[in-house]
Amino acid sequence: GQRWCEIARPQIHGHDFRCTAIIPCPHEPGNFRYASGSEEKMIRVLEAPQAFVDTLALAKTQSPQPFGTSQGYERALGAAVGALGLSNKAVFAEHAGQPNAGIGSGLEGGNYAEGPDLAPNAAPGAAAGPPLEEHLASNTLWPEIIKLYGHGSDLFALSAHPDGTLLASTCKAQIVPQAAIWLWDTSTWQPLGKPLEAHGLTVTQLAFSPDGQHLLSASRDRTFALWARCTNAQPGDAQYDLLGKVKAHARIIWTISWAPDGRHFATGSRDGTVKVWQLPTTGPPSKPLQTISSFGKAASVTALAFTPAPAAATATGAGSPAAQPQPATCLAVGLEDGSISLCSMRENQPLLASCGDDHTVRIFSVHL
């Protein structure tokens, strides 16, 4: 079977992490970025250093590549955190292992906003096998490339557009302006247009659809909002317009997830219910969105994730052509008590099957 191992600890923070988002880099093969938010008002964006890229290549039995560049500047070898610091400072190859690693690069910190700085004895490097604890703890950090400021409260949710061009963010909120969704252009790291306003309390989760044409937001105000990409948006505009807002649950909506087909999504709430919704086939909704399936759980639903599920071929009699497997989608449901249940849906069969720790298998009829 497959074997999994930890190969890096990109960030060690002094505050609890609240949210992260992987930022795709389709035009920069071999580059990896992510954004993180915690109990502070800024977003930190980090980029994979050369040591991680090499470690990943070795893990895939490939040869490490020569030192590369990212957006035209030299890629850092790794990163280190100074004493009492929270920011990961870039460390470059020529200074690795020195008491003041990174100083004197002559590249203004290599164009990394948070480096160079004092980083005692930082010695990042590639690992040929599963890294040991000592290596993970001190030599696998990623350097910060920028901090994004604008929110007036602690960060709460992040989501990146599938093509990596946009980053959406929200913070803790008690009023409408604070609950607005900020969109950031990842090429300039500047906010786009006016923040998107629809909710009155904290937006708990954000999710772009697989094709990037829709943005979904869920909130403590028990509603979700559906946004559609503007076809006539001008450069610098917010890019998305509100399609509709639905009061979907009796308690806080903690989680949302898009199905791989981009036509269905699920919402999960503190009220212990999961609801599945369907987008109209063409054009904007002519009426409020309606749920197509709903089922309850024994505890608060805190996490949802769709994934394509392989479907087994149907057995047939002798001489009969083999039946084609029907496409299936699996929905993982995470509960506040730590348990996870799996539900399977099929496009051409109006049935939903779920199983849980209550020792039951339940089959629901789904009317699409």
TrEMBL record:
It holds the Pfam family WD40. The keyword Disulfide bond does not apply. Gene3D superfamilies: YVTN repeat-like/Quinoprotein amine dehydrogenase. WD repeats lie at residues 196-227, 246-279. It is found in: Cytoplasm; Nucleus. One of its GO terms (biological process) is tRNA wobble uridine modification. Pathway: tRNA modification; 5-methoxycarbonylmethyl-2-thiouridine-tRNA biosynthesis. SUPFAM superfamilies: WD40 repeat-like. Keywords: Cytoplasm, Nucleus, Repeat, tRNA processing, WD repeat. InterPro entries: Elp2 (IPR037289), WD40/YVTN_repeat-like_dom_sf (IPR015943), WD40_repeat_dom_sf (IPR036322), WD40_rpt (IPR001680). One of its GO terms (cellular component) is cytoplasm. Belongs to the WD repeat ELP2 family. This is Elongator complex protein 2. It comes from Apatococcus fuscideae.
